[in-house]
Model the fold of this input.
Amino acid sequence: MASSVANLNRSNDTYLSANVFDLFSLKESVVVITGGARGIGLALGFAIAEAGGVPVMIDANGQPHEHFYILQKMCPKLKLFVSDVTDYEKLEKTFGEIVSEFGRIDGCITAAGVCPDQPFLERSPASVKRCFDINIAGTFFAAQLAARQMDKQAKQPSSSPSSSKGSIVMIASMAAHRASKGQFTSDYCASKGAVNSLAKALSVELAEKAIRVNTISPGYIMTDMTLAISDTRPGLAKVFVDDPPMKRMGDRTDLKGAAVYLLSDASAYMTGGELLITGGLHAGLYEEVA
Ligand SMILES: NC(=O)c1ccc[n+]([C@@H]2O[C@H](COP(=O)([O-])OP(=O)(O)OC[C@H]3O[C@@H](n4cnc5c(N)ncnc54)[C@H](O)[C@@H]3O)[C@@H](O)[C@H]2O)c1
Done:
């Protein structure tokens, strides 16, 4: 039976020796990133390497963006594993290969995603299913495979470089909270809502294993994905720049600190949370009224 008296740890001076730069360190941490061949996933790979960690990329596309090779120079251990997050058997094999080669998994960022843009009444079952498979099931499977390994490590004598046994960071979206102006992204919005709900459920279920689960929900961020959208629909470029109250589009730089924070001991007491990085757009629109 649970005791009615709390076993309170009365020491309150730990913070005196906890240097903030040490808290943000990812030294020796191995972090798997799905969708790491380009875009947000690749940029967060730079953040991890700069913080002392080792990023390991998984992507369905075996031909990474040229910036991947800059990262590889900085972090020679960097490797891209070609795998599809919707193919569970292949993905399980890929995680096995990663553990054989890198020995452990301390963090996982799920950034693989697609964003179909088509009116709701025209969406085909096959295309909707593909969006849900990649954005929801792919996130679920990657998180599950990472958490299994983190749990295994926690039971081994060699402890993790971090005080938490693992940290999972899912890339959701502002689209989980509001419709994307001028875009037809019904299934995408639904999928990102599901990612946030999944993270909340896992944060509770995995807390006793000291595995933390949080999400980052970016607003409009300049990547090849949003560049391609702007090329085909120039009107949207104006929305991307003018709608955020901060009156600019986000850059991937704006996400780097958040990812390192959530992966590191700096966020040791944060789980089930969401960092909305939108230039203020999730909070509202600023429009001058005469
Ligand atoms: N760019 C933005 O403005 C923005 C805003 C909010 C959320 N997001 C989210 O951030 C994530 C990354 O977006 P991005 O802009 O970098 O896109 P991106 O298209 O540049 O990169 C996505 C990567 O995921 C990979 N991928 C797609 N399907 C896959 C699969 N089945 N298996 C493995 N890899 C797969 C792609 O090959 C690609 O390298 C996505 O989940 C996206 O929804 C992006």
